[in-house]
Each structure stands twice: as structure tokens, then as C-alpha cells.
Amino acid sequence: MKRLALIAALWATSTSAAPGAWVDGVLPVANPPVSKAVDLPITLPRENPAREGWAQQTPDQRLVYNVSKPQLLLWPGTLAANAVAPAVILVPGGGYQFLAMDNEGFDVAKRLDKQGVRVFILKYRTLPIGNGSVGDGFPAFKQALAGLFQKGEKPKEDNRPYAVADTQAAIRMVRANASAWHVDPARVGILGFSAGAVTVLATTQANAADARPDFVGMVYGPTQGTEVPVHAPPLFSVIAADDRFFKAQDLSMLHAWRTSGASVEFHLYSAGGHGFASQPNGTTSDAWFDQYALWLKDNHITGQITGK
Fold it and tell me: What percent of the residues of the chain are helix, what percent strand, and what percent coil, each to the nearest 5?
């Protein structure tokens, strides 16, 4: 099987501004072409008749909602074609109502690609919030977006089982195609943001033998809890003290992970808020990616590329 990649148009538009004025901070945009992404098998079926839609929150930040068909997007990458390298699957957040595809997907992939890894972006299923067309679905999406960020409203339905099932399917897919995609099947990790970080933790705790990540990262995700997976993989976790969604949590999960004997790296930034993945804001949280890159190297995940 040949290595699949998204067509160039998708990446070319990842930072382009949409024409026209913003509508209450968000603008509907056409669905970008992702036909060459890999469809993932659905292991936990759910009816979702809503059509997928895309919106632009700022000129360089796009969101996708009503995702009913999980896909694995393969970043084209700059590694030598035959180099065998570790893989990182990015799991964007968005309160399970949308996915922040630029801020926590494409823009992170651009930086991660330079670290000597094969990068994948998981487009997992989200909660249905109305039809995906501009005429009727976009208002429902905009209302959900406002409810999440302005009022802190949480969705009534728990989407984690579907997101976890799709993440497990992505891990299995990468390992199954390790030879074709030039990935080291023993170095397949996941890096999640916000709801994606919640998904990363739940996926790791599930302890599915064939879908267990070899290393995990959580950016502004949960820090509380005592459930540690058997043979817990190395964990990288960062959060800002003023995070509006997780600041009330204690650090019990990180303590439990460390006392279990597993490797933990944790950074608590004094400020940075929520959503700083690819959005520098002048606080120490801007350093998170460089620290993640050092962590990958220190854990011998990167720096061991073989082949040509």
C-alpha cells in the first residue's frame, strides 16, 4: 500500500483568510478536500445524519463539526521517504462538538514534522449539532460554540466512547500500515488537546492490548484522578494555572502516575489560559512545544531514525 497524503490544496489553505466579514466571530467556509485521507473502521456505530461542516473562527483557525466519518489524515512530511521513524497521532479538541483542525492539528503538525516523526491527525467523530449546511446547521454550530466558550456549557451526551474508539482505530491503522508508511510500530504515540487530551487519557486507561500507545501527551487536559493504566507509558502533560476548564482540578492523576513507577513530565504554567497550542500569547506556556520536543528526545523516542 502506497503512503497516502492529503492533497496539496488542504495544506495550502490551512492559514489562508476567508473572504468577507466575520459573523459574530465565526464564518462558514467550504469543506476542504480530504478525499485522500484514510477512512477508519467504525467499531462503535452511532447514527449521525448531520452533514459535516467547516467554519473559520479567525483568518487562520478553522473548525470542523458534525464529523460522522472518522478519518486519519496523513501529513505529507519532510522525512526521507524510506526513513523508519516514530509516529505521533494528533487528537484535536473542541468540547466534542467540533475539532480545532488548525490550532491543534495542521499548525502543530508543521512544527512536529521537523522533529523526525511521522505525523497523523485524527478526525474523530463529534456530537451531532444540526445539519452541516450553511442554511440550517451553521446557526446550531455557532450556538454550540458560544455555549461552550461564553457560558461554559457542557454537552449532555458523553462522546468519549466514540472518540476513544476512533483513537484506538487510528493506532491500529498506523501499526497495521507501519511498513508502508515507514513507521516504527513500537513507537506510536498520541498527543491530545483539551477534549482530545481527555480522549488520550481514556484511550490509555482502556488498556486495549492492540491499541495501547507507546507514549502519550496531554496539552491543557485533565490532571485529576487515580486510575493508572497497567504498564503506563511515558506521559507528558502541560496546563496553565488560569485554564478556565481544568484549573479546579488537583494534580492527583499526575501523582498517581508517578508513584506507579511510570515516567511523568509535567509543566504547570503560571498563565496561558486554554487553547495555546499554536497561539503564542507572551506567557511561559509558549514554551510547551519546545519542551515536548526535548521530552521526545530525552525519552529516546526521536533521534533514532533508521533507513535512508
Answer: 30, 20, 50
| Contact predicate 86/187, CB 8 Å | yes
Q: What does the DSSP 8-state code read for residue 277?
A: S
User: For 25-298, which CATH class?
Assistant: alpha beta
State the residue for C-alpha cell 490551512.
14
Give the pLDDT confidence of 67-107 residue by residue, as tens digits.
999 999 999 888 998 899 999 999 999 999 999 999 999 99
Residue 303 has what pLDDT?
83
Q: Confidence band (pLDDT; 50, 70, 90) for 306? A: low
Cβ contacts of residue 136 below 8 Å, gap of 6+?
130
The three cell numbers of residue 5 are 497524503
Measured CA to CA, the distance from residue 161 to residue 267 in angstroms comes to: 28
Please choose, from the candidates 112, 63, 15, 76, the residue with its C-alpha nearest in 3D space to the C-alpha of residue 275: 63
In sequence order, the 6+-apart residues with CB closer than 8 A to the CB of 179 are none
Type of residue numbered 98: F
Which residues, in sequence order, are CB contacts of 140 under 8 Å at separation 6+? 129, 130, 131
